[in-house]
Amino acid sequence: MAISVNTNLSALTAARILTNTNDSLDKTQKRVSSGFTIADAFDNGAIYAIAQNVRSDLSGISAVNGQLGGGLGAIQVANTAVNSISNKMADMRKTLTQLADGNVAGDTRTQLELQYSEQMQSLVNFAHAADYNGTNLVSNGTNYSIIRDALGNQLAITAVATQVVAAFSALSIAVTGGFTSAASMLNQTLSFATAESNIGTALNRIGVLNMRLSDQIRYNEGIEDAFKAGLSSLIDADLTVESATLTSLQIKQQLSSQSLSIANQRPQILLSLFGG
Question: Is Secreted included in the keywords of this UniProt record (predicted)?
Answer without folding.
Answer: yes
